[in-house]
Amino acid sequence: MELRQLRHFVAVAEELHFGRAAERLGITQPPLSQSIQALEAELGLSLFFRTKRSVRLSPVGQEWLPYARRILDEAAVLPDLARRLSRGEVGTVRLAFVSFVSYSFLPPLVRRFKQSFPEVELVMSEATSDVQIEALLGGELDAGLIIPPPNRAVPVPLRYVPVVSEELVVAVPSAWIEAGQIAPVGGAVSFDHLRDKPLILFPRQGAPALHDVVTRYYADQGARPFIAQHAMQMQTIVNLVAEGMGIAFVPGCMRSLAPPGVTYLKLGGTAPVTEVGVAWRPDSASEALRQLVDMATSAREGPLRNDAARAN
User: Fold this and answer.
1) Residue 280 backbone class (left: φ over 0; alpha: ψ -120 to 50; beta: rest)
2) Which end of the chain is more exposed for a tag (fewer CB within 10 A), N or C?
3) Total domains present in the chain
4) Is residue 83 one of the residues assigned to a domain?
C-alpha cells in the first residue's frame, strides 16, 4: 500500500465521482480506477459500491476513511518535521548528571536550553559517572555530565569535553568548630586540623576520580584518611556531616546546600580540584544533542558559570 493509493481513495471517497476525483488529483480517470482496484485487491475487500450512475462507500470504506485521512495528515507534516529535526528544534535528549552539578551549572544550562529549544524534550536523570558511561555505551543515554576517568580517558566511541573545574572545600560539623576541635582562620582551615578526623567519602567504584583526588590529597600531606562512612549522593554526605559523623571534601558549589549544623571552610594551601564535563557519542548524535553539547561547553567561557556563581 502506498500513500498515493490512500490519496486516491480519499479523493474518490470525498467526491463520490471518479471523474471529479481524477480532475482534482490532476490525473486521468483510467489510472485512478486501476489504483483503487489494486488497493481493493491488496486489502481483499471492496471500498466502494459502483454502478454506472453512482459511487458510494462500502461500510468498510466509510469507517476506513478517517484513518486514511489521519495517515495523510501525518505524512504531510513529515517534510517539515525532518527539517526541524535537522535544525535541532524538536526531538528528545536523554541527559544524566552527577549529583552536585544540580547545585552548579546544571539549572542555568537547562533553563537556557529550554528557552532556545522549547519543543525539545529533555529527559533528565541523576547517576554516578560509571553508570552514565555504561549507559552511553549501551545507547540508553544521549549525554552525561560526568567526573571524567583519569586522564579524561573515556571509552571509544565516546567523546568528552571539560566544562568546569572547582576547588574542593571541606564540610565540617559546626559543633566541632564551637567545641574547638577545628579552628578555622578567616574561613580557611589547615589540613593539620583535619588529618585525624573521620571522613565521609564517595565509594571508589561509583566515583573513582572524586575518590582518588581526595585520597591523593591526604597522601600529598603525608596522611592516610580514616574513612568513617561511604555515601553515594552528595546531599547525603553533607547531611551526614550535619549529624556530626565526620568531615567531607566537596566541590565549592555545594555551599548552596547549607543544612543546619554544617560549615564550609576553604583549605589552606593548594586545594584539590575536581572537574566535570560532558560525554556523548558523536557518531549517533542528533542535532538537538549537538546544540545541548555546544551550550554546555560554552560554560568554559563563562556565562553558565557566572549564573551558577550568582545562585551560590
Assistant:
1) beta
2) N
3) 3
4) no
